């Protein structure tokens, strides 16, 4: 009787341990598939963002916000000739400081935020900043177009 009980206990324990192992494996497999789907979605979203960013770049690798940032930097450095390289052909004759609408020294501005939205061959870049000597902020909107596969500023709107 004792041997029968040991054999039955051994068989029952083996079945129980096998069932637990299969249950844990099935649970892990389900969890793995769920996490794999989530990671797949995140990878697809990240790839879409990368492609959107690449599509926003011109042939030199500049995004519309890069063009505006470089333009403002050149204007702040009082390098009007370099700044004009970022303007569309029909706007290169403009007085840059006057078209920006700033009546103060540009080298003192601090840029807080640059964001942009893109259409087919045009983009709008919103630039926000402030004068360190004042408590008020400013906002400028730049409209860019693709000219010879390069982003160029075609309009500057200020608020």
β-sheet strand percentage: 15-25%
CATH architecture of the largest domain: Roll
Shape: rod-shaped
Order of helices and strands: HHHHEEEE
**Describe the biggest sheet?**
4 strands, antiparallel
Uncertain spans, ≥5 residues at pLDDT below 50? none
SS-based class: alpha+beta
| Distance between the amino and carboxyl termini | 96 Å
Question: Could you give me the name of the CATH homologous superfamily of the largest domain?
Answer: NTF2-like, domain 1
Number of domains in the coordinates? Answer: 2
Helix tally?
A: 4
Gyration radius (Cα, Å) is 31 Å
Mean residue pLDDT: 83
Brief summary of the model shown:
The protein is an alpha+beta fold and 159 residues long. Helices cover 49% and strands 24% of the residues. The longest helix is centred in the first third of the chain and has 55 residues, at 2-56.
Describe the structure.
The structure is a single chain. The chain is α+β, with helices and mostly antiparallel strands. The protein folds into two domains: 56 residues; 95 residues, NTF2-like, domain 1 (Nuclear Transport Factor 2, Chain: A), CATH 3.10.450. The protein is built from four helices and four strands. A four-stranded antiparallel beta sheet has the order 1-2-3-4, with helices on one face. A hairpin with a 6-residue loop joins strand 2 and strand 3.
